[in-house]
Amino acid sequence: MTKPKILITREIFDEALHYLQAHCTVIENQADQPYSSAALAAKLADCDGLMCALTDKVDAELLAHAPKLQAVANIAVGYNNIDVPACSARGIRVTNTPGVLDDSTADLAWTLMLGTARRITEVERRIRRGEWTGWRLKQWLGVDVHHATLGIVGMGRIGQAIARRAFGFEMSVIYHNRQRLSADIEQQTKAQYVDFETLLKTADFIVLQVPYSPQTHHLIGAAQLAMMKPTAIMINSTRGGVVDDAALIAALKQGTIRAAGLDVFENEPKLNPEFLELDNVVLAPHIGSSTEHTRQAMAMLAAQNLVAAVCGEQPPNWVNPPPV
Q1: Which H helix or E strand runs over 303?
Q2: For the chain, what is the mean pLDDT?
Q3: What is the band of 255 on the pLDDT scale with cuts at 50, 70, 90?
Q4: CATH number 3.40.50.300 given to 5-100+292-310
Q5: Which of 313, 243, 300, 283 has the alpha carbon at shortest distance from 70?
Q6: What angle do CA 117, 118, 123 make, to 5 degrees?
């Protein structure tokens, strides 16, 4: 029996690669050189499956060059890089990797929160420049995280993991979500539901954890930033585009809010260079899930999704199943 042919767009871990090779004929890219749109289209022309990263754009134009394609496995929980309706119209199964990255991503949100509150990257730069000449009572003052109010926008699995981490800091947790959580989950996370405007006006720390979509594009802009406390710290650990970066830069310069911690940016990796001129922002290069264990688990789950899909089985994490 002929094995399905699949294309992997970027380097993956050996365990996942060997699993795929046991079930499929694999075109790999362990050299990890990103494909141009034309090169990706050419390589995909006779493939049954595609394993891609969030940096790969899978749209109707690309699909037109892939008449045999049956499945697209994204190595990410988000899939805004994939035109899901176009895939559904072609009967192409789309999968993602939820669950395995929840805790690591929540940890990174807290890293940004703590680092921003205590100005860690700013003071480290000052030490490296030789600007620390001794202890002073009012030197480089930060703000307390403990006993503050944490506001989480987007209370899915990752948002709930972020909330649970607040227990040890004795924080008050409020959240806003498209749908209110069950009473059981609210009790487990010790979180109180509020409307969006109340959250913005009340929280000392605001963590964004919503997927990117046309509906969440620039969810946080100048108007929303103006609602926040001047002492507020905002964390974006979800997707670029949820925040209007230009408006955020203006707010940070003007003192509309105290500070921000960012793992994602509009047009990344080409982030707005004005961020680099600010001391009141902590920057990370989209590393929310970037631990060895988590990234290995993501790659293996994507591989399992893809093998199931191209072999005619139901993949574990099917984004666009047909209506029942």
Answers
A1: helix 292-310
A2: 97
A3: very high
A4: no
A5: 313
A6: 135
The pLDDT value recorded for residue 323 is 86
Which helix (DSSP H) or strand (DSSP E) does residue 111 occupy? helix 102-117
* Three-state DSSP class for residue 14: helix
Q: Confidence class of residue 9 from pLDDT cuts 50, 70 and 90?
A: very high
Each residue of 165-224: pLDDT tens digit? 999 999 999 999 999 999 999 999 999 999 999 999 999 999 999 999 999 999 999 999
DSSP string, 209-262: ----STTTTTSB-HHHHHHS-TT-EEEE-S-TTSB-HHHHHHHHHHTSSSEEEE
Q: Is there a shared CATH topology between the 5-100+292-310 domain and the 102-283 domain?
A: yes
Cβ pair 275, 300 in contact under 8 A: no
Sheet of 5-8: strands edge to edge?
Answer: 25-27, 5-8, 49-52, 71-74, 93-95
The distance from CA 95 to its chain's CA centroid, rounded to whole angstroms, is 16
Partners of residue 191 on adjacent β-strands: 173
85 pLDDT more than 90: yes
Domain ranges within the chain, ordered by starting residue: 5-100+292-310, 102-283
Cα–Cα distance, 64 to 61 (Å, whole number): 5
What is the torsion angle, in degrees rounded to the nearest 10, for the CA atoms of residue 155, residue 161, residue 166 and residue 172?
20
CATH number, span 102-283: 3.40.50.720
* CB within 8 Å of 55: residues ≥ 6 apart: 10, 34, 81
Residue 198 dihedral angles phi and psi, to the nearest 5°:
-60, -40
- Residues marked as catalytic: 239, 268, 286
